[in-house]
Amino acid sequence: MSMSRSSLTLVAILSSALASLAMAPQQAQNGDSAQTGTPTATSLGSAAPAAPADTIPTVAPFYTLPLGDVAGPRVSFQQNADVLTSVWMTAQGETYGRGTYLWDPDIRAFTGTSSTVYQCLSAEGAVASTFKYQVKEQLYVVNAHELRDRWTKPLDVDCAVGLVDKFRWYERAWVASDKNWKPLGSSAQPR
């Protein structure tokens, strides 16, 4: 029996979807998004573009979180086929993290980690110490102008030894911007 290329692609997509459904109970048991109430890529439906499973989306080189008509935190990406590298920055352009991600066709996202600085505060609110920790991330290309970032955020930290004891998954949508951090397709004027 011979199958056409489109039939094989459909079989691969269905197999991937069934594998994702089978993983849902395990994710809930491991403290993933089902436990925190955060929607996953499959539950959001429209978050992942409708393209063949073997298509790797192109990520824009710059994204920002707009705060009104000005740019907020920023991220820049370099993409080499299925590998992304990132530099995460504050609204003032100060680097606070760097990451590396690999395209995962099963969940249709770039997955990996970024190294980020955690600031431990004294009782007076001053920075008493800092340490680097690894953030788990999933980056979903929603469309040409939007990227959904799903990452782990520390909830309980032992500053004495620099250890994240407990975390929670969070999500945020970033918008593509030009090299001056103005969101693309925006009417915001630079200040």
Main beta-sheet annotation? 8 strands, antiparallel, barrel
Number of helices: 3
State the CATH topology.
Lipocalin
Average pLDDT metric:
75
Helix content: 10-25%
CATH architecture, by name, is Beta Barrel
Rg measurement, Å: 19 Å
**CATH class categorisation:** Mainly Beta
Distance between the termini: 65 Å
Task: List SSEs in N-to-C order.
Answer: HHHEEEEEEEE
Task: Give, in spatial order, the strands making up the sheet with the most strands.
Answer: 1-2-3-4-5-6-7-8
How would you describe this protein?
The protein has 191 residues and is α+β, with helices and mostly antiparallel strands. It has one domain (33-176): Lipocalin (Beta Barrel), CATH 2.40.128. It has helices at 5-29, 33-36, 41-44, and strands spanning 62-67, 70-80, 83-89, 95-104, 109-121, 127-143, 146-158, 163-176. An 8-stranded antiparallel β-barrel has the order 1-2-3-4-5-6-7-8. Mean pLDDT is 75; it is low at 1-50 and 186-191.
Features of the shown structure:
191 residues; disordered C terminus; 3 helices; Lipocalin; single chain; 48% strand; alpha+beta; disordered N terminus; eight-stranded antiparallel barrel
Briefly characterize the structure.
With 191 residues, the protein is of the alpha+beta class.
Topology:
Blueprint: H1 5-29, H2 33-36, H3 41-44, E1 62-67, E2 70-80, E3 83-89, E4 95-104, E5 109-121, E6 127-143, E7 146-158, E8 163-176
